[in-house]
Structures are given as C-alpha cells and as structure tokens.
C-alpha cells in the first residue's frame, strides 16, 4: 500500500468509530460494531505483515518514511467506541480492543523506524564502501575495459553519441542485475524524465521498454541529473541500500550499484572532456589569427585579470567608447593595423560602429583617464 492509502484507511476507520459513537442505538448497531472491529483488526494485521515485519528487518521504503506513525497512534488512542447507551457493550469492547491492537502495531513501527541510521551515518557507510570499491580489482577492471572500449570501438576518440550509447548500455546492465527491484516492485507508475537519458534506441516489446522506464524512475529516486550527468546523492543512496542491509541479496545489489555507477561515471567524465575540447575549438574559431600570438594572449589575459574582459575575452560591461579604446590600445601594442576588423570579429560588432565609438571617445575628457588606466594594466 502507498502512504496515502494507509493514511486514508486509518482515517476511514476512525471516522466510522466516531459515527458509531454518535449513532442512536438500533437493531443494526450491534452488527456494524462487529464489522468495524473486524475491519480494524484486518488493518492491524495488514500493517503488521506488510510494514512492521519489513522495517523490523531494516528494509525501509519511501512509503514508510512518508508517514508519521506516532501521529497516527495518537489519533487511534483518542478514538473510542462508546456512547450514552449501555447496549452493545461487548461489541464496543471488541472495537476498543481492536483499536488497542492497531495502536500497538503503529507504536512498534514507529519504534523500529527510529532505530534506523541518521543521514550522516548513511553517508559514512556509502562513502566507506565507495572507497573500498575504488581500490578493488573490479574498479581497476572497469577502468581498463573503458579504455579498451575507447581504443577499439572509437579509435581513441569517442563522440558524444558513442558515450551516450555506452552509458545507456551500462544502465541496462544494472537494471538487468535487479539492483533496483526492491523499489520497482512497490511502484505503481513510472515518472518520465524527458531530456535526460535517451532510451529510444532500445529494441523490444512495449513491456520491456516500460520496465526500463520503471527502473530508471527508481534510479532517479536516489540519484540526481545535473548538467547532463547522473550524480549520486549519498544520503538517498544510503537510505535505500543500507537501511535494507539485511534484505536478501542486499550486499550484492550494493556492489553492483557501485560498479555500474562507476562505469557510468567514467563515461560521464569522458563526456565532459569531449565537451571541453569542443568548446575550446569553438573559441579558437572565434579568435582572429592576429590575436593568437603569445604576446596577444598575454595582453588579453592582463585585461581579464583586471576585470576589463571576461574569460572568453569579451567586454565585461564596457561602454562603446571604452570598447573602442581597449581595441585601439591592444592593436597599437601589437602593431595590428586592422583594428576594427579584428575586434569587430572578436566581439561580433560592426567595424564601422567600433570606429565611430573611437571618434566619440577622442572628444571626451574622461577617455584620457581610461587610457591611463589601460596603460597601467598593460605596462
């Protein structure tokens, strides 16, 4: 049952208790009380079998964490099947006894949940096991296999598409290992995450594809997706794997999770490297040849350090006259004649516009102060 279903069932029982307490005794009251006692007992048995046994074995699910069992206990304790009439006394006692049993189960669940680790302990357990894994033979093999994949499958230069295919492949392997089965079994629907991992390449019947999306939705409960990469959240991973450490196959599932997330992490590091190289190539294309000399780079970086330009050599909040003075000063230092063409290309401005700003700057007294500032920076 979901957390909402558990809350709704108990709320429904308490409403019936309240209504019967206010009901004027009639021929059917006795049978309604007997039915209510049976319903309360059934709910208590269900919670004992489906929740108490699970949390007693340290297998905590989201449904458990979403409910304040102590608060439910308080509500049940406040309920009582009584009335001003002395009739149906035995039946009312049965209802109260059933409520007492239900309250005991709620208190036991709350007590078991309170034994579980705090978030800091979950993080410690996860990070300790992750450190052990990094120095293991499995980690070494994963790195070697990834390098071999790059060399033999991608000729040493994987594309973004190659890397995405590799990541999808490792995710599918993780799902096949049943790492997230414990969570998937309790999911009623799978949230879709458009724009994240692309599973459209998967071939198979709709049932298989649906299962993949269920597993990915379960994975996203314990990892984040940032800047195109899956990122582990140690707290949520710890809650999932270490609160369930006595569950059958729990250690195997933890080990497989570490192994496959490590492989996915290797692919994502490579992806960042590829993206960085592409960005550098794009930036080089935007820099005119006359500004690619070591002298030019030194002057431009001096302006970056002074806050005149940003890291991409673009004006940092400069006015038109200031931009013109910067361009003219740099070109004078480097003996570049095509001042406006060079910086017009770099800054994506029309050369004639930049030239007009210089004419305007020469008419302003404050331009002399700005030129002095540039000279000090570029000395």
Q: How would you describe this structure to a colleague?
A:
With 379 residues, the protein is mainly α. The chain folds into three domains: 3-114; 119-283, no CATH class; 289-377, no CATH class. Helices cover 69% and strands 2% of the residues. It has 17 helices and two strands. Strands 1-2 form a two-stranded antiparallel sheet. A hairpin with a 2-residue loop joins strand 1 (223-226) and strand 2. Helix 2 runs parallel beside helix 5 (89-114) and helix 7 (137-154) packs across helix 12 (250-286). The chain is elongated. The N and C termini lie far apart (74 Å). 26% of the residues are buried.
Topology overview:
Elements: H1 3-22, H2 29-56, H3 62-65, H4 69-78, H5 89-114, H6 119-134, H7 137-154, H8 160-176, H9 181-184, H10 206-219, E1 223-226, E2 229-232, H11 234-242, H12 250-286, H13 294-305, H14 320-334, H15 339-346, H16 351-361, H17 366-377
Antiparallel strand pairs: 1-2
Summarize the structure.
By secondary structure, this protein is mainly α.
How does the helix and strand content classify structurally? Answer: mainly alpha
What is the string of SSEs from the N terminus onward?
A: HHHHHHHHHHEEHHHHHHH
Unreliable spans are: none
* Largest sheet strand order: 1-2
Could you tell me how far the N terminus lies from the C terminus, measured between alpha carbons in angstroms?
74 Å
Mean pLDDT: 85
Q: Kindly state the percentage of residues in helix.
A: 55-70%
